[in-house]
Structure formats: structure tokens, C-alpha cells
Specification:
single chain; 858 residues; alpha/beta; Rossmann fold; ten-stranded mixed sheet; 29 helices; 17% strand; globular
């Protein structure tokens, strides 16, 4: 009997690229630099290759070039008009790559600086689906503006084979998730290889094994985005799937991904010869990079962990987008022990000391490892993403700085923005080119440059808006018809889909993640009143909804189901639509086509939000709760607010109040202004609001302004501060850490036993009050501390919401070793004024309380 051969064949893989005629090679260069995704000329080039195929391949130029018929390419290389267009688009790319930049002009001494921007997701284009929502789209826009400004930044993330889930609704409107595996070789990415053409690999240690990853690079204008991929043959099947899905899998999958991102990402840069001067953690997912930076410094300098952590933190920034503590990743002790039991041996720490890096209360064995807190403890600079979110973050993080007033918690704010060129329609861009000049997008932060928006003729602005609206209606009809066919809709439903929405009627858009706090149900508190608004004979209203619920969020899925059921009411089918699988392409059509962008979060849980900014750039008006960015942008000339920023203890009562306010605004303000037409058929009052909105919002809420702020306030100062400790100056770090340890060891001895103070006096404005305090320092010296007067206007509860600080000066020691300090308090305003005396650590190299969170009050 013949022996059976059971071994499966060993398949060797080849990467086959499209063959392009020599004259069309510039197409490949354009395709592999994602700048095409925000350059209309480049996009139009790919459309001209094959318009229908461009849509079928999901706007992916690499797949387009690999799928287009060779005969078509032969035709194009002899098409003089096409070649001229191609040459122009290619020259524009080269000019962008080679031109002088804002950063090189502003910071000529920092041309060699490298900033590493770590994020779990990047949303640059729908063709590279490594994003789930706003966090990723913001990260993508950050890279685009960094390229425009010439900020020397590299991105670091993960290459997800299946990306985020594809949303489909079943016949009952219930969200179902599917994951589509994609071939990364078909995306506009390139593998990083060495001089011999071999893939460059890195590895991270997991329990009992090494997990390897290869490195892809996406070119985003001047910026390079490096993406790690564990789907390599050397890894076990479970490890190959680590980078399969964004936010997929179990908690264990999450810690695996965050180890690969933070530790593996830093090792990838090192392997590529990139040593970042500054690291920026976009959310806490990359917090382990702080630990890895410290480990590397220990190896190179001989510093211990505390010293190396201090040195690494000097040049690290942490941006939080989370409005509630529950949004921070938490890992239980056993899981951390499993993955870091061996790793921490290289840190010279015991396991409890390592856990304390992420515990709110060091030593509390019942507390989980908090990734945001780990990021905070490995960074010197921190920020929220709007002014209101700054306040929320300080309140949320106050327990991490016990004893410090809320307004002194070291978290700053940089309000998010949006990359205007990515989101403004082609027609709107042409209109702005004509009235603002062709270079408005190069410096959208120039406030005076936007003044001509108010002079754009009404008929021209309205014509552009209506063209975007018509494109949206066409898009919605086609997509809805496709949705219905896929879920087995009836012939009657499919026919009806071809007639949904009327571009002449008011269209309101609501598109976002269906999390509970987004309150998509606010609009549906009174269904009969809503129906009357929608079905008004004289002034009807239409709605387009889109958005995904997290796969584990049953309540979010229930909300979607309720909306779909309501929209399926026969008399509403033409006026209310839910679009499946919200992504960048759907978002682009919505923000360019709706009349009103509706946003109803529960204040103050919207950290920032950026979709309303994208809509405003296209002339769409915002109707929103005063939360996130809208707090800073709103006045009654540019849109509408739901309420005045009130927060009620009873959430159900608040929902009723704000739902009624929403209906009132729609009935009394939004709808009448839209349908108030002159003899020329134009809604003059509406167009006046459109112009005022664009004039106010565009120059302020864009990522050029945002990234410039990051450079000015964080990147360059962090690099300069790091430079002070470099070049053999590590004795300063050792001295600083030694001082911190000494202060921590003896801080319990610090006290203010006596305060020579007036209380309850009646004074006149401007009066000076002498203050004297006796301070016991124990083993510490006066040079180790700062004794301060904390003072300001007091509220009805006797608290000081926003304090001022005045140093007190030592007056002389007394026999018991304590020191008297003195100073004057000036009361600048009338009313209730409060003050208190405190002692804080002080050292020329220490940022307090950023790195030393100690304080003693009288």
C-alpha cells in the first residue's frame, strides 16, 4: 500500500505590483502618498483613470492601479490632457515635500527634532480603515496638518488586518458586526525592509515566548506613519491575530495590543534608526512606551528606574480625550503579572512597585493598573481637548494630586480642530479660492483672511450648498437601496428608497457613535410632536442618521433599532433615513450636504467633538448642546444652542427639559429661518448665518492651529527641557530624584502650626493685609520648599474656585527650628474673598505638581 503524504504545501508568496507604462509611473508615486486623500486634483486623476472602478475599490488607488484594464492604461499614456493633469498633480506633491515650512521658519534651531505620535487608531482615508471614529480621524488630521506645517513628526500605530467592524442591520434594525479581512499589500502601504530586501522585524516578550511584528509605512505628505503587524508566519495563530481587529477581542487582547503599540512601537522606531526627542501619547493606549523609554535609558546611562523615568518624562506628552474615569483602560493584577512578570526584572522594580505606576493609591493591592495614570506618571505635559474638557479632566484627575485645588491640577487644554482641506467639498473649495485667494488652506488660522467670506454673494454660496445637498441625496438613495437589497427588503421598499429626501427641504444630520451619553434618543422623547415637525405641510423637516454602537453595547444597538423602526413608519420613510456603516466617506457626504448638524450629548461628557467643525466649514449650521468645542464657538449669530449649559441632578428631568427646548428651537427658529424666502427664492437670513458661522469657526477650529499649538506649547519646550538634561548632565537628574526621595521621606514632618491671620475682617478694596505663618520643616531646608499664600474670590460655600498664588518670604528661624514667613495680601475686588497658607516642594529642576504632588495646608 502506498504511503499517504499528509503534509500541506509550503507556499511562497510574491508581492505583485501593477505594471504601469513609464509615462504613468507618477501615478504610483501619487498613490503611495496619502496626500492624494485631501488634494482634489490628485483624487480627480484617479477618477479619470476609471470613474466606476474608483468607487468599486473603495477609493483605494493601489487597488485601482492593480485592477484597471491594461488597455485603458495604454490609452491614458497617449492622452495629452490626462498627462498634463498628472504632471500638475505630481508637481504639487513634490512642491509640498520640498518647500519651506512654518516649522522650519519658526524654529530653525530644531530642524533635527523628531516627535513620535503614538495612537491606537489613525483615520486618514476610508481606503486605509485603521480607525473607529473621532479619535482616529483626529489622529489622521493631526498628521495631515503636521505635514502642512512641516512639524518633524512620525506616527506610530497598528496595522489591523480586519480594521473596525462593518455594520449591517438585519430586517428588524438590529446591528450586526462583520469583519472583512483585507490584504495589506493592496493598501497604499509599504513594508519596511533592510538593505538586502528582508523585512525589518521587532519583537516583544510575552509569557513564555517572543512575539514578532513587521513594520508597514504609510506616507502622509511629509509625515511617515509606521504601523506594526503581528500577522507573520513565525508567530502562533493567537499572536498573529493580535493586530487583527481594532478594539476587538478580550481584555487580554487589549493589553497585548497596547504592549505591541507602546513597547513594540518604540522598538520599531529604534530599529529604523529613529530616536524620538519627544513622545506624544494620543490617549492612554500607548502608556507602556513611557516604561520602555525609561528601560532603554537605564541600559544606556546606568540610571535607576526612578531616575530614568524622570528623564524620559521630561519630553513626554499625554493627551486625554476621555470625559469619565470609566473610559480609562484598567488591567487587573493577575493580567499585568502575566505579561510583565519577566519584563520588570529589567527595571529593577518588584511587582508591587510596578503596579504602583498605575495605581491611584500606591500600595493598594485591590486596585487595577490604570493606563491613563501610567501615562500621567511617565509624562510632564498633559492636556484635554477643549476648554471645558480641561475642567472636566482636572476634576476627574484631582484624586491623583491629593490636596491640590482643582484649578491647579496640571492638565492644560488644546481644543481639537479639523483638517479643512480633507472635509471641504470641491465646490466650496473653488468658491473660497475665488474670494479668499488660492492659498487660504495654507494658513487657515489667519483670521483676517476669512473676512471676505461675509462678502460672498448669497446666490453663489447657496448654489454651492445646494450642489452638496444634491450629491448627498443621490448618495443616500443609492446607499439605502443597496442596504435594502442586502437585508432582503421588499420591492416596494426598494422602489421607495429611490425617492427619499428632497434637496429643497430642510435636512438635519445626526451621525456619531451610539454611546449612551450621546443621547440620540433626545430627539425622540415626544414622537407625536416630532412627527408634526417632520410632516409639516408648509415647512417639512428631514433627518439622516448614521453611526455605530460598540459590539458589546446592547443599549446602543437598541437605540439604533428604535430609530430604524421609527423611520420605517410608512409616512416617514421619505423623510428619515438611517445609513449603515458610518465611515469617512459617509461622513464626508453628510457634512458637505446637510443643512443642520445636530448634536445632543449629555454635558459635560463630549470631550470635544469635531464633526460639527467639518460641517461648519461647508456652510452647515450647528444645533448643539453647549458641550465640547461648541462652548467656545457658539454665539447666536452662527448657530443654535440647546439650553444654556445647565446640568441637572435628575438626568430624566434634564432630558425632558432639553428635548422640549430642541423641539422649540426647531419650530420657532431653525425651520422658520430656513423657509423664509425672498422673491429670489433665497433664504437670506439662513445664508447670513452660514457666512457668519464659516467666518467665526474656520480660522479657529482647524488642525493647523491645533498642531501649531502643540508645537509651541509642548513639543519645542519639551525638547528644550530634555536638552538641558542631556549631554552628560545626568547628574542633574540624579540630584533631582535624590531630592524628590528626600522630600517624600520627610514631608510628613512639614506643618504650619501657627498663622498670624485676620479672619472675617471688613476691608476696603485695595487694602493690604499682613500675613505671617510659622512653618515647621523638620529635616528639610527652606530652599526645599515654597511657602505660599493661596487667595481669590470665594463662592457661597467658602471655596476658592480660581486661586492666585503669592509667595511668602522667610523672616527668620525661631528656637525650635521652625521658620516664620511673611507677606501681604491685597484684596483687589469687593465681595467675599478667601485665602489660605500652604507649603509645596520647590526645586529649580522640578515641575510642581507635575512631578511632585505634595502639599501641606494650614
Amino acid at each position: 500500500m502506498a504511503e499517504t503524504q499528509n503534509d500541506s504545501p509550503k507556499i511562497r508568496l510574491l508581492h505583485v505590483k501593477a505594471h504601469l507604462p513609464q509615462r504613468l509611473e507618477k501615478l504610483r508615486e501619487l498613490a503611495y502618498n496619502l496626500r492624494w486623500s485631501w488634494e482634489q486634483d490628485a483624487i480627480e486623476i484617479f477618477r479619470r483613470v476609471d470613474r466606476e472602478l474608483w468607487g468599486r475599490v473603495g477609493h483605494n488607488p493601489v487597488r485601482l492601479l492593480g485592477s484597471v484594464d491594461q488597455a485603458r492604461l495604454e490609452t491614458l499614456q497617449n492622452d495629452a490632457a490626462f498627462l498634463a493633469h498628472l504632471d500638475q498633480a505630481h508637481a504639487s506633491l513634490q512642491e509640498h515635500l520640498d518647500g519651506e515650512t512654518w516649522f522650519s521658519r519658526t524654529y530653525p534651531d530644531h530642524r533635527d527634532l523628531t516627535i513620535a505620535y503614538f495612537s491606537a487608531e489613525f483615520g486618514i482615508t476610508e481606503a486605509v480603515p485603521f480607525y473607529s471614529g473621532g479619535l482616529g480621524v483626529l489622529a489622521g488630521d493631526h498628521l495631515k496638518s503636521a505635514s502642512a506645517l512641516g512639524v518633524p513628526l512620525v506616527g506610530v500605530g497598528l496595522a489591523y488586518q480586519e480594521g473596525y467592524f462593518v455594520q449591517n442591520l438585519n430586517i428588524d434594525g438590529w446591528q450586526q458586526e462583520t469583519y472583512r479581512r483585507q490584504n495589506l499589500f493592496d493598501l497604499p502601504l509599504s513594508l519596511q525592509t533592510d538593505a538586502e530586501g528582508e523585512e525589518i522585524r521587532i519583537s516583544v516578550k510575552f509569557p513564555g515566548r517572543e512575539v514578532g511584528a513587521r513594520i508597514w509605512v504609510a506616507r502622509v505628505g511629509r509625515i511617515r506613519l509606521y504601523l506594526l503587524d503581528t500577522n507573520i508566519p513565525e508567530n502562533a495563530p493567537g499572536d498573529r491575530a493580535i493586530t487583527a481587529r481594532l478594539y476587538g477581542g478580550t481584555v487580554e487582547t487589549r493589553i497585548q495590543q497596547e504592549i505591541v503599540l507602546g513597547i513594540g512601537g518604540l522598538r520599531a522606531l529604534e530599529k529604523l534608526g529613529i530616536r524620538p526627542d519627544v513622545c506624544h501619547m494620543n490617549e492612554g493606549h500607548a502608556a507602556f512606551l513611557g516604561v520602555e523609554r525609561a528601560r532603554v535609558l537605564m541600559t544606556e546611562t546606568g540610571l535607576n528606574y526612578d531616575e530614568a523615568r524622570e528623564l524620559a518624562a521630561v519630553s513626554c506628552l499625554f493627551t486625554t480625550h476621555t470625559p469619565v474615569p470609566a473610559g480609562f483602560d484598567l488591567f487587573e493584577t493577575d493580567l499585568v503579572r502575566k505579561y510583565f512578570g519577566e519584563y520588570i526584572q529589567d527595571l529593577g522594580l518588584d511587582f508591587d512597585a510596578f503596579m504602583d505606576l498605575g495605581r491611584v493609591d500606591p500600595g493598594r493591592s485591590d486596585q487595577a493598573f490604570n493606563m491613563a495614570l501610567c501615562a500621567v506618571r511617565h509624562s510632564t505635559y498633559r492636556n484635554g481637548v477643549s476648554r471645558l474638557h480641561d475642567e472636566v479632566s482636572r476634576r476627574m484627575m484631582q484624586p491623583w494630586w491629593p490636596g491640590y485645588p482643582e484649578d491647579e491640577i496640571p492638565v492644560e487644554s488644546i481644543t481639537n480642530g479639523t483638517h479643512l482641506r480633507s472635509w471641504i467639498s470641491r465646490d466650496m473649495k473653488r468658491l473660497l479660492d475665488g474670494y479668499l485667494g488660492p492659498f487660504w488652506a495654507d494658513d487657515p488660522t489667519d483670521d483676517s483672511l476669512w473676512e471676505p467670506v461675509t462678502q460672498i454673494p448669497e446666490e453663489e454660496l447657496w448654489r454651492v450648498h445646494m450642489s452638496g445637498k444634491q450629491r448627498l441625496v443621490t448618495f443616500v438613495r443609492r446607499r439605502l437601496e443597496s442596504q435594502l437589497r442586502e437585508r432582503g427588503g421588499s420591492p416596494e421598499e426598494i422602489i421607495a428608497a429611490k425617492g427619499v429626501l428632497d434637496p429643497d427641504k430642510l435636512i438635519i444630520g445626526f451621525a456619531r457613535r451610539f454611546a449612551t451619553y450621546k443621547r440620540a434618543t433626545l430627539l425622540f422623547r415626544d414622537l407625536e410632536r416630532l412627527k408634526r415637525i417632520i410632516l409639516s405641510a408648509k415647512a417639512p423637516v428631514q433627518f439622516v442618521f448614521a453611526g455605530k454602537a460598540h459590539p458589546a453595547d446592547s443599549y446602543g444597538k437598541e437605540i439604533i433599532k428604535r430609530i430604524v423602526h421609527f423611520a420605517q413608519t410608512p409616512e416617514l420613510r421619505a423623510s428619515m433615513v438611517f445609513l449603515e456603516n458610518y465611515d469617512i466617506n459617509v461622513a464626508r457626504h453628510l457634512v458637505q450636504g446637510v443643512d443642520v448638524w445636530l448634536n445632543t450629548p449629555r454635558r459635560p461628557l463630549e470631550a470635544s467633538g469635531t464633526s460639527g467643525m467639518k460641517a461648519a466649514a461647508n456652510g452647515t449650521l450647528n444645533l448643539s448642546v453647549l458641550d465640547g468645542w461648541w462652548c467656545e464657538a457658539y454665539d447666536n449669530r452662527v448657530g443654535w444652542s440647546i439650553g444654556h449649559g445647565e446640568v441637572y441632578e435628575n438626568e430624566d428631568y434634564q432630558d425632558n427639559v432639553e428635548a422640549n427646548a430642541l423641539y422649540d428651537i426647531l419650530e420657532r427658529e431653525v425651520v422658520p429661518v430656513y423657509y423664509d424666502r425672498g422673491r429670489d427664492g433665497l433664504p437670506s437670513g439662513w445664508i447670513t448665518k452660514m457666512r457668519a458661522s464659516m467666518r467665526r469657526i474656520c480660522p479657529r477650529f482647524n488642525t493647523n492651529r491645533m498642531v501649531g499649538e502643540y508645537a509651541d506649547r509642548f513639543y519645542v519646550p519639551a525638547a528644550r527641557r530634555a536638552g538641558e538634561f542631556a549631554n552628560g548632565n545626568h547628574h542633574r537628574i540624579r540630584d533631582l530624584v535624590g531630592w524628590i526621595r528626600n522630600v517624600q521621606a520627610h514631608w510628613g514632618e512639614v506643618a504650619i502650626p501657627e498663622l498670624d491671620q485676620p479672619n472675617g475682617l471688613e476691608l476696603q478694596v485695595g487694602a493690604r493685609v499682613p500675613i505671617r505663618a510659622r512653618v515647621v520643616l523638620g529635616e528639610l531646608k527652606p530652599s526645599d520648599v515654597s511657602v505660599e499664600l493661596y487667595h481669590g474670590e470665594a463662592d457661597a460655600e467658602g471655596r476658592i474656585p480660581h486661586g492666585n498664588v503669592t509667595p511668602l518670604v522667610p523672616e527668620g528661624e525661631v528656637s525650635d527650628g521652625s521658620v516664620w514667613y511673611r507677606g501681604d495680601l491685597t484684596c483687589p475686588v469687593s465681595g467675599l474673598y478667601g485665602y489660605a497658607v500652604r507649603v509645596r516642594p520647590a526645586h529649580p529642576d522640578a515641575m510642581v505638581p507635575h512631578r511632585v504632588a505634595l502639599i501641606t495646608w494650614y
